[in-house]
Amino acid sequence: MTKSFLLAGVGGQGTILTSKILTEGLTQLGFDIKMSEIHGMAQRGGTVTTHIKFGEKVYSPIITSGEADVLLAFEKLEAARHLSYLKPGGTLIVNDYEIYPMSVLTGQVEYPENILDILKSTVPNTVVVNAYDIAKDAGSVRAQNIVLLGAAVKILGITDLDWEQIIKSYLPEKFHEMNIKAFNTGMREA
């Protein structure tokens, strides 16, 4: 049986790095995996998504509407934007964090109020993670992606790997301790 995992964030949040680490772990677990990255206007604060499918045999990484088992949103508005990809009964993991898009910054529209309440009422299986505060406590707010990775690993039930070693293989040594702390706290908070 194939599982679908969609990651959605804003350029600069570490969505692609998180996808690569997750994919490495799934590979070590023996799954066939396909991954596809969509960058959009990532360097200008635009949406970045990664489609990951894994299972015994996977033919395409592309996730269509209503197909994702898990949606990992690095930002609240990105969760709302990509909610249509989540299948009924799927799980939404959302970072309690806001990055205002250009339309909000220029005053064209307002950032939606009570967006977490709307998401939770729409998706019963919603896990809200305050990755910003956790990452800050770990040493840098830039580790939010690794906090969310920890939450995803816990929720997917794939904790029986040496995730710390996998994370270390993707990051410079000077960031190991901080990111391992962020990952472990993310797992606990899930």
TrEMBL record:
InterPro entries to which the protein is assigned, alphabetical: IorB_Oxidoreductase, Pyrv/ketoisovalerate_OxRed_cat, Pyrv_flavodox_OxRed_cen
Keyword Oxidoreductase included in the entry's annotation: yes
UniProtKB keywords: Oxidoreductase, Pyruvate
UniProt GO MF annotations: oxidoreductase activity, acting on the aldehyde or oxo group of donors
Pfam families for the chain: POR
Coiled coil: none
Name of the protein in question: Indolepyruvate ferredoxin oxidoreductase beta subunit
Organism this protein belongs to: Tepidanaerobacter syntrophicus
